[in-house]
């Protein structure tokens, strides 16, 4: 029994226990494989966290981090009395992210209780909501839908939509508030600043304008861009894909506001100047015109206007031709307004005195094969009478008494042939040929304003000689505390003598009695110059001009007027420019509180047609 029991137990249990055992090479293969994978993971981690960290960080930032620009409020531009000429007002701009939008098919509406399940879900937008946006923002039908569905190809050739789209810029805060109250998904507003010009077209050529991004494009908005713009601030944030700000990730850098620019312009005088110029240009059928008003004591520009003008508040409707600042950029031959400077040269060089008799004969003078003519002869006349009657022959004879180099130096001293350096864009320098190349006939014609080109600003500046003691000051658009040092060009005695002759031009017998002002003594010189057309002087196209001082007893204002191509009947400076001078001076002197220096009965009857006709 016992033996049998052992035999049964032996059958149930194997004689030897078999223990599974891996081959050694298999163990090392598995272990080596694991080590390689582990090393690869460590290498990849080092590559991503050390060598490629910057690139990956930039990619992450590009998707979520945003640096928001905090706009600086652009500085104001004011006139000399602090009246605003350019100000910035806060407005709202509407934007969307087309890549985040899902345009629903026609007839399908977004559920009113729709909420995004996650950051990756596109925001549904129905066609009805698109139409509402277009109507509220006054966009063309279908314009917004086209922009939202537009796509472009990326570097891999895949069609993608834009992340950012300006829907409408610079709308009023009230309109933006109504729009945002609609709670249309994916529509956002952003605060910006829009430039506003209270004086409109009256001040357009001085102040200029900015583009929609607030960058100066013309005038002092352009030349003083850095001063006015200030420095924008910044705010770094993390945004989710729907545009919501999750958190700020750095300290906010506040913007530095732009500085205020105070000009020398007097807004009241500017309005007078523009009104009178525009009325005359319109009534005379002229192509255009310009006027400059200077403070005779300091050289400050009190007014500068051009016609036609433009409204800087309506950028889309600006005619490029109307942006020309004729007073500074357009050149013309000054005609008889140059005679005052020629007489001043001769007086200052002691070649003549005011009472010197000059024989003009029958009103003609031969210079080689050329002829200088007067339309109406004055015979033997004093220097004063030659100025009053505007004799070409008389001033030509005075000019030929002096050497060429002296005359050239005089022209340079008064600023001809170089830009006036007012800080304004596009200033013209004019043209005077080198004196060594002058021929006698050119010396003669330059004495009465032909054969040279100047700007109206240069002519206004040159008449400073007669407003004071023979000094000329720099012209400036910036309000001064004290006058800048001047340059002595002629003696005080010469300035006084010419000033007396300029007054005679506005008295009976002169060419500019229409320049007279009630209660004030004034003086100036008319000019009527033929225009060059296709290389030849035109028989019909003229530039009528006048440059004058007021009051003549103690000049406070210098006013220069130029009217380009008035109708032939109004072509003379005494008819088209002198009346503008009279009206502007009358209003300006009263605004400045300058006491009258003449009785109110000082006005004489207008001059006859024959007297108006200065030599051309």
UniProtKB/TrEMBL annotation:
Enzyme Commission code(s) on record: 3.4.16.4
Give a yes or no for keyword Cell inner membrane in this entry. yes
Q: How does it sit in the membrane?
A: Single-pass membrane protein
Record field: catalytic activity? Preferential cleavage: (Ac)2-L-Lys-D-Ala-|-D-Ala. Also transpeptidation of peptidyl-alanyl moieties that are N-acyl substituents of D-alanine
**A GO cellular-component term linked to this record:** plasma membrane
Q: Where on the tree of life does the source sit, at the highest rank?
A: Bacteria
Cite the Penicillin-binding protein dimerisation domain residue spans from the record.
70-248
Q: What does this protein do?
A: Catalyzes cross-linking of the peptidoglycan cell wall at the division septum.
Family from the record: Belongs to the transpeptidase family. FtsI subfamily.
Record-given protein name: Peptidoglycan D,D-transpeptidase FtsI
Q: Where does this protein come from, organism-wise?
A: Deefgea piscis
UniProt lists the gene as: ftsI
């Amino acid at each position: 029994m016992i033996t049998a029991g052992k035999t049964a137990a032996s059958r149930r249990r194997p004689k030897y226990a078999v223990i599974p055992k891996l081959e050694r090479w298999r163990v090392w293969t598995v272990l080596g494989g694991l080590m390689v994978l582990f090393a690869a993971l460590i290498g990849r981690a080092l590559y991503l966290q050390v060598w490629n960290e910057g690139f990956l960080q930039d990619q992450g930032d590009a998707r979520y981090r945003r640096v928001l620009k905090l706009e600086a409020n652009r500085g104001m531009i004011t006139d000399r009395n602090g009246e605003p000429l350019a100000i910035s007002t806060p407005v709202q701009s509407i934007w969307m992210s087309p890549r985040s939008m899902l345009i629903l098919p026609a007839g399908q509406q977004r559920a009113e209780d729709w909420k995004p399940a996650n950051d990756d879900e596109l925001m549904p937008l129905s066609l009805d909501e698109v139409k509402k946006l277009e109507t509220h923002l006054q966009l063309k039908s279908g314009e917004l839908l086209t922009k939202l569905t537009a796509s472009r190809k990326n570097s891999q050739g895949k069609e993608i939509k834009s992340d950012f789209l300006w829907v409408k810029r610079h709308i009023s805060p009230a309109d933006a508030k109504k729009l945002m109250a609609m709670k249309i998904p994916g529509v956002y507003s952003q605060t910006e600043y829009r430039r506003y010009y209270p004086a409109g077209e009256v001040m357009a050529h001085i102040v200029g304008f900015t583009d929609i991004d607030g960058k100066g494009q013309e005038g002092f908005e352009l030349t003083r861009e850095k001063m006015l713009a200030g420095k924008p601030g910044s705010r770094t944030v993390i945004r989710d894909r729907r545009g919501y700000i999750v958190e700020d990730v750095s300290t906010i850098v506040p913007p530095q506001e732009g500085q205020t620019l105070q000009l020398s312009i007097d807004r009241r005088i500017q309005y007078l100047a523009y009104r009178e110029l525009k009325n005359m240009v319109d009534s005379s059928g002229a192509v255009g015109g310009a006027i400059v008003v200077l403070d005779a004591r300091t050289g400050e520009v009190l007014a500068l206007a051009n016609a036609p003008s433009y409204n800087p508040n309506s950028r889309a409707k600006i005619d490029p031709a109307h942006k020309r600042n004729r007073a500074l950029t357009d050149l013309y031959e000054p005609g008889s307004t140059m005679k005052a400077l020629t007489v001043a040269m001769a007086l200052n060089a002691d070649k003549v005195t005011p009472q010197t008799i000059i024989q003009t004969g029958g009103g003609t003078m031969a210079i080689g094969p050329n002829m200088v003519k007067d339309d109406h002869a004055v015979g033997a006349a004093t220097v004063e009478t030659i100025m009053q009657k505007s004799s070409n022959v008389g001033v030509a004879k005075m000019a030929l008494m002096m050497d060429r180099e002296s005359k050239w130096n005089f022209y340079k001293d008064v600023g001809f042939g170089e830009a006036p350096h007012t800080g304004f864009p596009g200033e013209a320098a004019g043209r005077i040929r080198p004196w060594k190349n002058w021929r006698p006939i050119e010396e003669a014609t330059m004495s009465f304003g032909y054969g040279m080109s100047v700007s109206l600003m240069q002519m206004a500046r040159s008449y400073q000689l007669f407003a004071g003691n023979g000094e000329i000051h720099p012209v400036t658009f910036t309000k001064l505390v004290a006058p800048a040092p001047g340059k002595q060009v002629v003696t005080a005695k010469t300035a006084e003598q010419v000033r007396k002759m300029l007054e005679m031009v506005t008295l009976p017998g002169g060419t500019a009695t229409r320049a007279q002002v009630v209660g004030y003594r004034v003086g100036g010189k008319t000019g009527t110059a033929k225009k060059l057309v296709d290389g030849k002087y035109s028989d019909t196209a003229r530039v009528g001009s006048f440059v004058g001082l007021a009051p003549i007893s103690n000049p406070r204002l210098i006013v220069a007027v130029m009217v380009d191509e008035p109708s032939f009947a109004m072509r003379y400076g005494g008819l088209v420019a002198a009346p503008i001078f009279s009206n502007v001076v009358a209003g300006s002197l009263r605004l400045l509180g300058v006491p009258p220096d003449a009785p109110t009965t000082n006005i004489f009857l207008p001059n006859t047609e024959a007297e108006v006709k200065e030599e051309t």
